[in-house]
Amino acid sequence: MNNEIINALLTRRSVRSYKPQQVTDDELRTVLETGTYAPTSMGRQDPWIVAVQNAGLRQELTEMNAKVMGVDSDPYYGAPTIVLVFATKGARNAVQDASLALGNMMNAAHAIGLGSCWINRELEMFDTPQGRSIMQRLGLPEGLTCVGALSLGYIDKQPAAPKPRKANYYRVVK
């Protein structure tokens, strides 16, 4: 790979601002279906994946996240689509399964020109009365826990270029 391609990949993965424009249905379907193809432990269909595009619910999620996590910024960077990943409480390998799904969705998003950012602070957020209420409104069964989220949208502006890396910062040993 040449440096231009590497810089483009690094830049795209550090998105911090999105246009308010919704992701098209076809693009969203591509991302979500790719996430469900993630190989999960024991072949079970954990995790559960829910895409939220409702503006009111998105705002509620943002406010709930700020309250529970003690932050005052938007953890979703203004993304109009938030993909929440849930798994069965106590499921073996739930976090690993969610990581596979999130990673697959992120790669799919980048492959079709969407920006995405992995969010890892949702666990405690849904273990509240408000969080359980939101899960009911999302049509999720009881006994699930949120294990991650992905902000998804069109890049609003290019972030600052990544810092140059030192020469020979990695090696391949065969």
Give a description of the structure:
The chain has helices at residues 3-12, 25-36, 55-69, 94-111, 129-137, and strands at residues 48-52, 81-88, 115-119, 144-153. With 174 residues, the protein is α+β, with helices and mostly antiparallel strands. The protein is globular.
What layout of secondary structure does this protein have?
Blueprint: H1 3-12, H2 25-36, E1 48-52, H3 55-69, E2 81-88, H4 94-111, E3 115-119, H5 129-137, E4 144-153
Antiparallel strand pairs: 1-2, 2-4, 3-4
Helix pairs in contact: 2-4
Main features:
single chain; 174 residues; alpha+beta; 5 helices
Short description:
The chain is of the alpha+beta class. The chain contains five helices and four strands. The chain is 37% helix and 16% strand.
How many beta-strand segments? Answer: 4
Strand order of the largest sheet: 1-2-4-3
What proportion of the residues is helical, as a percent range? 25-40%
C-alpha-based Rg, rounded? 17 Å
Low-confidence sequence ranges:
5-14
Strand content is 15-25%
Q: Structural class of the secondary elements?
A: alpha+beta
> How many strands, what sense, and barrel or not for the largest sheet?
4 strands, antiparallel
Tell me, rounded to a whole number, the average pLDDT: 80
